[in-house]
Specification:
The protein is mainly α and 516 residues long. The protein has 22 helices and 3 strands.
Length: 516
Amino acid sequence: MILCVCQRRATCNSGTSTGTLQTTEKWCKESMKLTHTLRRLGLGMVVPVNAPQSLSVRASPQLYPLLFGSRCVATQGISADCDLKCAFAEAIPSLQERLKNIKTSFGSKSLGEVTVNMALGGMRGVPGLLWETSLLDAEDGIRFRGHTITELQQKLPKATPSGEPLPEGLLWLLLTGNIPSKQQAVSLSAELQKRAETPPQVFKVLDALPAKTHPMTQLSCAIMAMQPDSKFALAYQNGLHKSDYWDPTFEDSLDCIARLPGIAAAIYRRTFRNGSIIEADPSLDWAGNLAHMMGYQDQGAKELMRLYMTIHSDHEGGNVSAHATHLVGSALSDPYLSLAAGLNGLAGPLHGLANQEVLKWLNRVESDIGSDVSKEELSRYVSATLNSGRVVPGYGHAVLRKTDPRFTCQREFGLKHLPDYPKFKLVSKLFEVVPGVLAETGKVSNPWPNVDAHSGVLLQFYGITEENFYTVLFGVSRAMGVLSQLVLSRAMGLPIERPKSMTTRWLENKFGQAGE
């Protein structure tokens, strides 16, 4: 259990206020004494809100009576004004208890058989990783904490009544498992703005790189340049108790997420816009500011960025960027080191460049037969592509067995904002043609479009035509998912990852000489 003290006024039955606790040296000493007492009882810790950030945790409302006396109302569940850290702290005990029960009840159960082909095929389909923030369902697509994308478009708070979900709301959900109120999402947006100032050494590092450095290399270097300020690294060096690992991990993660829009925009402006920097607009949300700082003031561009940041944030734990972040983080590397590892994996052409491949293919289609073509012409062209041994990028998925909901929500966005855009119309025609052509081959288990079949076209419409930058946008979004899971992993006390490897000789000795 985590017992924390909020610096806010507590309402009592009498209607009077107990006053605001001041974070003083005396209170810090008393709170630490109470922490040690609680730890001996196996209960947790207590810290004040405005203590050094390595100690900053928020209050559990259920414990207000202990803090403010017997007259104070003890609210049940998460209070309406509880901030993200408070909400996360409240969720930790039940999360730990759930994991403990699973270990006790099912620890010796088998998750299934692992074949040689699975081991040699990139461990595809091998169940061996706990990932709380999302789960990929073959029928419903990705579920964020149990919610489908369609559900989240309805439930998550929005910047405008008919607009796209705020990524801040998704971040709250990923960490706590609960849909936030509009007030909570807005307060988190304000919290991220407070944390958004980028350390000056980041820009010095970027300025030292050659102008033609790939944007993903710049992003990785920028994240590593923030690492010297890691609160987790400092707290661990100073002897942080393992039950508190989540706290500075949370702080680092929110700092990093808050700074990413400004860093990404700076990389964009430096690489493609002669280095002129646009300052953040304090009236905008996290994703809206990313579009603004990149230089795109159209409201549609801001709405697209909110949608893009939300749907690309997480996709289970087995993909390269998620797994790399988790793997490095399992060694207790701080969030900056862990995220940099994940983004370096995302930069690989087999992971983060898929939407660029789609755009290249669409441009080839337009060049060869034009965009205003009949379905029959398009069908013949797709068949010729497949018969030549090439693939149709943006179609098919290793797990999904129907249209990717991330494609669907982007298509709905396109129908609303850019129905007459030639590339959008071409994508729409392909959606009607390609699945049937692929199904006729009998070789494709899932002929339906995935998220990459659409995302590049939407960005192109709003003038974001620099394809080398698309993976940076992907990385900014993905940081929300992988860092949320890193905080959860620290709260659950997950161990260092250490799967068993083997050699070809070991396989031959176990099963017999190959070819015999």
